[in-house]
Structure formats: C-alpha cells, structure tokens
Amino acid sequence: QSEAVFRAMDTNSDGEISLEEFTKGLSDAMEGEEAAMSESPALAAFRELDTDGSGFIDLQELRVALDAAARARPSEEVVEAIFREIDANGDGVISFEEFARVYAKLEL
Ligand SMILES: [Ca+2]
Ligand SMILES: [Ca+2]
Can you give the residue range of the structural domain that contains 100? Predict the structure, then answer.
C-alpha cells in the first residue's frame, strides 16, 4: 500500500519523490480529508446508524437507533411510521440520500 502512495505522489514517475511532489501529495491528501469532514455530519450519523455497514439503514437498524435515542421505547407502529417517512422511494431500506434529506431538516 505504501508503494501505491509513493507512486501516486511520484507524479513525474522518475522513481523519486521530490520535496515538491511530497508536499503536493500531502496537501492533496489534507484537502480530501477536509472535504470529507465538511460533508460529514449527515454521513457520520448515517454510518453510525448503518451498524452492519451495508450502505443502507434497514428497519432493524432504525429501531435500534430510536430505542437508544428515545427515553421511552417507541412502539413498533411509531418506528415503522418513521421508517416509511424517511424511505421516500419505498424500497424498504433507507439510502444515504433519503437519510440526508431528513437530516437536513433536523439540522434547521
Ligand atoms: Ca445496514
Ligand atoms: Ca429507500
């Protein structure tokens, strides 16, 4: 993996990383990190809810999250109603796009 990083930084492919190439590579990496940070409140929350890392939040994952967030355990009806509300296209899973739309409203 470090070899891939090396090759990515060695932009003129002469087998050596010049100081210029190194600092350029480093600042590119930092910029990527910053971009990830700025988009991340919704993404971080989504990842937290997507406990199995499937890229989607299913009903079970939402139930666990609501159980943890609510003082009183929400009823199954309430969980399903909230799920349907967020699952805009009704495919039975919450995508990040669907989640982000709701999250943006919460953040107001
Ligand atoms: Ca999941
Ligand atoms: Ca959906």
Answer: 2-106
